[in-house]
Amino acid sequence: SNFILANAQGRCGFPIVYCSDGFCDLTGFARTEIMQKNCSCRFLCGAETSEPVLQCIEKALDGRQEYQSEVCFYKKGGTAFWCLLDIMPIKNEKGEVVLFLFSFKDITESRGRSHPGDKKEEKQRSKKPGSSQLRAARRQGRTVLYRLSNQFDRRGRGEVKINRNVFEGKPSIPEYKVASVQKSRFILLHYSIFKALWDWLILLATFYVAITVPYNVCFTGTEDSLSAARSTIVSDIAVEMLFILDIILNFRTTYVSQSGQVVYDPRSICLHYVATWFFVDLIAALPFDLLYIFNVTVTSLVHLLKTVRLLRLLRLLQKLDRYSQYSAMVLTLLMSMFALLAHWMACIWYVIGRKELESNDPRTWDIGWLHELGKRLEAPYINNSVGGPSIRSTYIASLYFTLSSLTSVGFGNVCANTDAEKIFSICTMLIGALMHAVVFGNVTAIIQRMYSRRSLYHTRMKDLKDFIRVHRLPQQLKQRMLEYFQTTWSVNNGIDANELLHDFPDELRADVAMHLNKDILQLPIFETASRGCLRSLSLHIKTSFCAPGEYLLRQGDALQANYFVCSGSLEVLKDNVVLAILGKGDLIGADLCTMDQVIKTNADVKALTYCDLQHIGLQGLSEVLQLYPEYASKFTADIHQDLTFNLREGSELK
């Protein structure tokens, strides 16, 4: 929208307190050139601008009335353009007009296509309330008014209340407060409840595959009949269908880009998924079990091919970071992985025993662990191929041996006799020792490391509450302190950049500071500064934060720094009258003076929303300018043009 806001309570005229980026693009003026000018738009006048229309505008402003008209204005470069002007007064809850909203719609092309003889008639039609162009402009203006009224309503409700869940029960680290995003209803949010439940279902299906696939490969390959392999055909097909459905959902699920932004574009989502996990998921979802439905003869090779489904475990490693924030989940996953490893090794242990049976003479060889098990269970092998214990008993014995070996508490009732079995037992014991040393011996350290930042948050929160209780701070002040602490922690996660970079060399700190403060250093006023000057300035730039309703500066305060708005909105107030509304990219402060002179602020600066600010101290700025005198004169001359609002006391008179 191309619009400006003007203060309707000014003593001398009606100064502009806000202008949109669209208005700057339309007129060619910079925001700093427009702010505090009179809203009668005399600075846009030219040779073809109608003086009667300008007089009607001033009359409507004096009478606090609505006004609509077509008028010819001129851009900064001297180019004329026709616009549909709509003036709407904004009233407060007392019915007093506090602001004027000027809406500008460029109609140059439509007037150029119309016949010159019809311009007078078209102008008369445009003044009628029923004009379609005016109705569209008024709808646009009311939309802006609605957004502004919501902003002022939020500001007028007093202090912003904190979510009580943060301070009651088991508080969690606060998250960013984000606005709702417009997205297609067919796009699935990766952080939604449904996606979380679906991920749990896929996790269970992945564990099912990790258990059944090795079992079927090792224990069902010796049977000619398909009964054992077909016992789990229904569940296997169900899991395959889940994996196929998961692929479809992943093509419609949002993801977080490398810059930290959530991507909602369907095409970007598809390209990202194809480039990352699509082929792994596709191979793992191949429906091998459909061969049973069509009565296709299934060999052990098919069971071996199904081991590619174990690639789904790679997705589990991807999600470990999400699950690692819950201690119970960490322990559960560790135990599950330990049991899964024991299951895989039990399958290998059975295959070793089976191969030993098949490769040795049944008349002279009977020392394998399967032979020993068959003798104890009174189900001996005949010719090393017939008889023997059941598959169920064999698997349980295998799992018993591997678990007892991994935990180093073996009892010897199932033991290794042949060379191959002993080598496998040695490997199992080594793996078990490694599991104990790496995982179970460091569970406490792992949990403490994962929760170190959360523990620091709770410690500082407890210290803050103890401080409030000991000094008996009033409720309003307590609320403000808790709100500020909670929100600043969500922004910087408790990391003090200045303290973190303190021990680094100046050269490296300057490079990091230039990267962190690149937004403020890209202002036009710093364009002519040398790289050395910018590096010195970057070391003096600090980051600050302001919550809604908090005052950044009070009228009469000694101004210590110039502030750059990185995000959020602020308002400049004087005697409860809005002088300016500041947004992203605005610079507020004062021009430099002698070192001994103290700069007093001429207005209050109050945050309307959560605001991220960067500020450079006036003392540090003066020190840098003394080191670079060739740039100091340029800076002193241009600072007036780049300040969106000059807070120096007395500057409003100039």
CATH superfamily of the domain at 497-646: Jelly Rolls
> How many individual β-strands?
18
Mean pLDDT, rounded to whole units? 77
Strand content: 5-15%
| Helix segment tally | 27
Query: How are the strands of the largest sheet arranged?
Result: 2-1-5-4-3
Secondary-structure class: alpha+beta
Largest sheet: 5 strands, antiparallel
Flag low-confidence runs.
115-131, 143-179
Instruction: Provide the gyration radius in Å.
Output: 37 Å
User: Which architecture of the domain at 497-646 per CATH?
Assistant: Sandwich
> For the record, what CATH class of the domain at 497-646 applies?
Mainly Beta
Fraction of residues in helix? 40-55%
Distance between the termini: 31 Å
Question: How would you characterize this protein structure?
Answer:
Residues 110-124 have a biased composition (Basic and acidic residues). Its main location: membrane. It catalyses: K(+)(in) = K(+)(out). Pore-forming (alpha) subunit of a voltage-gated delayed rectifier. Activates at more negative voltages, exhibits fast prepulse-independent activation kinetics and deactivates much more slowly, but shows no inactivation. The chain has 654 residues and is an alpha+beta fold. Among the domains are: 3-109 and 135-147, Beta-Lactamase (2-Layer Sandwich); 185-320; 497-646, Jelly Rolls, CATH 2.60.120. The chain has 27 helices and 18 strands. A 5-stranded antiparallel beta sheet has the order 2-1-5-4-3, sandwiched between helices. A 5-stranded mixed beta sheet has the order 10-17-12-15-18. The chain has a 4-stranded antiparallel beta sheet with strand order 11-16-13-14, with no helix packed on it. Helix 15 (327-359) packs antiparallel against helix 18 (419-438). The longest helix has 33 residues, at 327-359. It is elongated and about 120 Å long. The model is unreliable at 115-131 and 143-179 (pLDDT under 50).
